[in-house]
Amino acid sequence: MPNVVDLSLTAAARRALARLLDERGLSFFLKKGRGGPAARIDNRKLAWVVEAASRKTRRGIRDLNAISRTRRILRREIIRHLAEAMVSAGL
User: Fold this and answer.
1) What is the per-residue pLDDT for 57?
2) How far apart (Å, rounded) are the C-alpha atoms in residues 55 and 78?
3) Taking the model in full, what pTM does it have?
4) What confidence score (pLDDT) does residue 56 get?
5) What average pLDDT does the segment 50-69 reach?
6) Residue 40 CB contacts under 8 Å (≥ 6 apart), including other chains
7) DSSP per position, the chain
8) What is the distance between the alpha carbons of residues 1 and 82, in angstroms, rounded to a whole number?
């Protein structure tokens, strides 16, 4: 039996991520530095976006595989935005 993947959670989370990036910027999703050179993604804020999208689309239904997959996709989106920002800054 083939696996059925519901992409509504991912689509809603990507829309929420895009909206938050426009409103608050990339630094909202980064941990505050403690003097270290590397930027770190704040996993709590990623989980918050996925949870909000889950409540909006699923109405409480939990699919752990879909949630995990959506977090990975959002993490990649943030990494892509961070890389673009670093290239445009010349770092």
Assistant:
1) 81
2) 22
3) 0.82
4) 84
5) 80
6) 30, 31
7) -------HHHHHHHHHHHHHHHHH-GGGGBPPPSS-SS--B-HHHHHHHHHHHHHHHHTT---HHHHHHHHHHHHHHHHHHHHHHHHHHT-
8) 39
- Residue from 35, 31, 29 nearest 47 by CA: 29
Sole residue written with tokens 């409103």: 23
Contact 53, 9 (CB under 8 A): yes
C-alpha span between 71 and 53 (Å, rounded): 11
Amino acid making up residue 10? T
CB atoms within 10 A of CB 24: 11
Between CA 74 and CA 81, with CA 77 as vertex, the angle to 5 degrees is: 140
Compute the Cα dihedral for 9, 80, 68, 6 and give only its sign.
positive
Kindly indicate the confidence band of residue 31, based on its pLDDT and cuts at 50, 70 and 90.
confident
